Amino acid sequence: MKWSYMDHWRSQGPHGPIDQWESRATMDRFLKQVAAVGYDAIDTFDFRWYQIMGEYGSVANYQEFVQERGLDRIVNTFHAADYDPRVYAPHIPETHANILEDFRVTMDRWSGIRLDNIIVMPATLYYDMEPVTDDKIKITAELWNKVGEITNAAGVKLTCHHEFFCGIQSRAELDTFYAATDPALVNLFVDTAQHCIASVDPIEFYEAYADRVSGFHFKDTRHQDLIGDFKRRPDSEIMSDTTAKWFYEMGDEDGLVDFENFMRAVARNGYDGYLSVEHDKANKLGGDHAESTAIAAWYAKNVLERVAAEEVAR
Amino acid sequence: MIRWSYGINQFKPQFDDFVRRRDHLRALRVISASGFSAVELNAGSGRWEPLGNPQQIAANFGSVAAFGAFVREQALDTVSSWFWDPSIRLQEDLTHGDDASSSSPDARAALVGHARWFSSALAELGGDVLVARPAASAAQLASLDDDVIETLAESWTAVADAIAVDGVRLALHFDFYSALRRDDGLERLLQATDARVGFAVDTAEFTIAGLDPVAFYRAHPDRVTHVHLKNAAAVDDLDEYTMPAPEFTLLRAGGSRAVPRWFTELATEPLLVDAPGFVRSLAEHDYDGWVVVESDLTPHPPTSAMLNGWEVQHVLAPLAGS
């Protein structure tokens, strides 16, 4: 069982909060902390490419820097696109040429290393896609089938990660989307907290699509969105009036995700890829990325690996 | 064989911090996740020191044994050791600190009694080293004549004999503002005692005091029963260790230069402590005991534990074959 750490990190620098990309020294400290508590690899965002080129010269050089700190490699990259209905929106066919070209460029930029997945939020913000119709979802699916061909040609799986505030987030929308996409081209990346917030049971959903799942974000939440925060303008994720912090590290005492049974399902289905741990915005409300990273690692090793072994032994 | 432990002290920067069960649970899990197998406790008194002494532990966990189970539930093997500064007042029995430099029978009995209080609980927790501050601060103990050294030696020998009943060894822990820094006090106390009285080497405290921890260890490998491993960021070359109230004016305020942090992680520049060199010397002499990595007064405890964990796993433990 191998664990990867998804790139979210803040620490205190001499001029205030910083991320690990600040310098080689801060990256060194970040990677050592991740490796020290038992993660095997990292995931990242591909918008980091510009900083990588400036600081390390190439993606392969950066990966070497990662490996020198005791980590296997970079497993996945998250393609965090700036969706905009004018130029870049999966449900708007006129923008598809831009999106396809973006992926051709992106895959070329990352071709120097082996990636398992490129992860996307497959729809715009919910309010930019409203009303969400079957037709819009099918147009969106057609785009991602084409993108999947591009990433497959580069040896990388395209996989979809459904934020609770994106245009495809309810169970009905998800089912429509996966019925319209080609399983050979479009995979699913299950984020336990995002689905939980959207009132989609992560275990049931995972079980329904286990053969299309190419990865996970293991993270927790204390809140479900029961009043439509997912449509909030201009932002749901960090500006919601009801919830100042949506995400917590797994093992959180007030968390809603049933990780033990989720892990049993993962083991039952024979998943053998990396398991990614995430707790984005862990620093909100006084949280601490380093502590959350260690606590999640402790939970992975001491709770989830145990229940997975039990499940396999059955 | 080196056994790697971590000091809990870094998690409690102020007296009203680190009092809740959740804090303890998360701290122990951070230590465990960072690759350490044990934790060193820090003696304290009163209800805001839930891990400070046997009475507070029992008040919070039901019993010492229940706290031991709590530690193991967080995937640590044991409590390695307990650090005790005898000068702290103990609200639990309304005493005002013990004085090892006193030859009064009552003072000696009180010192030994408190040492046993900690050592018996420590043994129940699975630990085997009581780490004690051997003398007051330099500002408090102005004279270190031969009589004082002899009294200290007698006091600590009595303590060592008493706690041996619990299977606990004594490790006298020199710090950089100790009275023992004056007049070669550390070496004289070592010579005035026999093998029953063990010593701790705290690599940062030695370095800040201008002593070479490697040289000390190599000179006395049979007397060193405990190690605190941490890096130092500055040396007290202004001899400010005699300042009054040095725990505040020097250790925390940083003296006249306002040193922001005396102690740093093992691989944080500047590297005034050669941690690999020190561990190599431990291995050369087949050191068999705890190495407690510390980062007291760090501004970021989880990060310090994790960075030190990386250094132990990838650099130091391979050097020691542990």
Describe the structure in your own words:
The complex is a heterodimer of chains A (314) and B (322). By secondary structure, chain A is of the alpha/beta class. Chain A has a single domain (3-313), classed as Alpha-Beta Barrel (TIM Barrel), CATH 3.20.20. Helix content of chain A is 40%, strand content 15%. Chain A has helices at residues 24-36, 49-56, 59-67, 96-109, 126-129, 134-153, 171-180, 192-197, 202-208, 259-268, 289-313; strands spanning 3-6, 11-13, 16-18, 41-45, 74-79, 117-120, 157-160, 187-191, 213-218, 220-221, 247-248, 275-277. Chain A has an eight-stranded parallel beta barrel. Chain A has a two-stranded antiparallel ribbon with strand order 2-3. A two-stranded antiparallel sheet of chain A has the order 10-11. The longest helix of chain A is centred in the C-terminal third of the chain and has 25 residues, at 289-313. Chain B is of the alpha/beta class and 322 residues long. Chain B has one domain: TIM Barrel (Alpha-Beta Barrel), CATH 3.20.20. In chain B, 40% of the residues lie in helices and 15% in strands. In chain B, strands 1-2-3-4-5-6-7-10 form an eight-stranded parallel β-barrel, surrounded by seven helices. In chain B, helix 1 runs parallel beside helix 11, helix 4 runs parallel beside helix 5 (146-164) and helix 8 packs parallel to helix 10 (275-284). The model of chain B has no long low-confidence stretch (mean pLDDT 97). The chains are: A alpha/beta (314), B alpha/beta (322).
